[in-house]
Structure to design on (297 residues):
């Protein structure tokens, strides 16, 4: 069997088109354009790429945006004071602090200083907590995008065994919660969450009906680790040195794509799978923030 491809680029394009229509309708009703403030601390080439993609997506859907570039010497106090100003600015609907932050800054502290009603990344403990108990919240964009992919391709997860490799706060943990808790056909899975201390990873991955991999380890998942017919969502984005490429690297996921796809029923490519959905869901969240849809005032 060769897997069918879950085309995140295509689904993201459709999602962005819907958001564009919703933004137009919102503005036709007399509202200003939604506004996303991006905060970028220090210099990190990968962050620049991600922020560039988010900025282009905003333009595409009619969301206004600005990127505030702050030096990597900024203190936690100064950064939090800047965020507080954004919290209090009624013209700012969404605030996104691009991660990772320089080592002297605690991402937890900084995220917690964002007004949870503007936390369009869905990383604030208020949003994570509400997600966990099934209350409306801003959903972390990557996990929310994965659920959209299941819905788009009518891949039900109810009653299935979903194995998540990676337990980070931004991907692994929230997708395990959504897969386990979400009502209807695209949730209600039995979930296993693995991390780098998991003994015998294969023992878990081999029993997965749905396998979500977000470890940041190229070629971690090999065909002998999965069963025939598994649905594979590869979240990993790894820059692997490649002299044949102009940029000097190739982007790879966490799965050995060519061989795993021969056993899977569905699989996401890297690039072009989960990544574009993450950006599309950020657009959705920013519009929800502008409309006060999650936290009505
Ligand atoms: P992270 O480093 O915060 O977390 C990695 C997790 O994987 C940890 O829980 C760690 O214990 C686990 N892990 C690492 N090695 C492992 C191993 N050998 N076996 C089992 N578990 C292992 O990373 P993150 O922020 O969650 O990102 C994970 C990957 O997903 C990265 O490649 C990142 O670039 C990518 N990512 C992609 C998107 C997207 O939109 N496609 C969004 C966010 C992150």
């Amino acid at each position: 069997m060769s897997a069918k491809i879950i085309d995140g680029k295509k689904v993201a394009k459709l999602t962005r088109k819907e958001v564009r229509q919703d933004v137009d309708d919102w503005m036709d009703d007399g509202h200003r354009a939604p506004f996303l403030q991006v905060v970028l601390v220090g210099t990190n080439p990968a962050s620049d790429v991600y922020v560039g993609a988010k900025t282009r997506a905003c333009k595409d859907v009619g969301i206004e945006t600005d990127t505030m570039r702050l030096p990597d010497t900024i203190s936690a106090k100064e950064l939090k004071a800047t965020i507080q100003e954004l919290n209090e600015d009624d013209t700012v609907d969404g605030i996104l602090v691009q991660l990772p932050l320089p080592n002297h800054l605690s991402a937890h502290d900084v995220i917690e200083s964002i007004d949870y009603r503007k936390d369009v990344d869905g990383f604030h403990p208020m949003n994570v907590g509400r997600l966990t108990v099934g209350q409306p919240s801003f959903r972390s964009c990557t996990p929310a995008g994965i659920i959209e992919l299941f819905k788009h391709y009518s891949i039900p997860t109810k009653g299935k065994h979903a194995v998540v490799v990676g337990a980070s706060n931004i991907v692994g943990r929230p997708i395990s919660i959504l897969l386990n808790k979400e009502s209807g056909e695209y949730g209600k899975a039995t979930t296993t969450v693995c991390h780098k201390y998991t003994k015998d990873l294969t023992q878990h991955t081999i029993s997965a009906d749905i396998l979500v991999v977000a470890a940041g380890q190229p070629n971690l998942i090999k065909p002998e680790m999965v069963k025939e017919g598994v649905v594979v969502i590869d979240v990993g984005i790894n820059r692997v040195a490649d002299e044949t490429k102009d940029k000097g690297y190739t982007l790879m996921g966490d799965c050995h794509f060519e061989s795993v796809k021969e056993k899977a029923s569905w699989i996401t490519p890297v690039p072009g799978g989960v990544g574009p959905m993450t950006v599309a869901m950020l657009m959705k969240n920013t519009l929800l923030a502008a409309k006060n849809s999650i936290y009505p005032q």
Q: What stands out?
A: Residues 30-116 form a domain with the Rossmann fold fold (CATH 3.40.50.10860). Residues 142, 165-168, 170-172, 194-196, 198, 201, 214-217, 220, 235-238, 274-275, 278 surround nicotinamide-adenine-dinucleotide (CB under 6 Å). The chain has a mean pLDDT of 97. The chain has two domains: 30-116, 141-275.
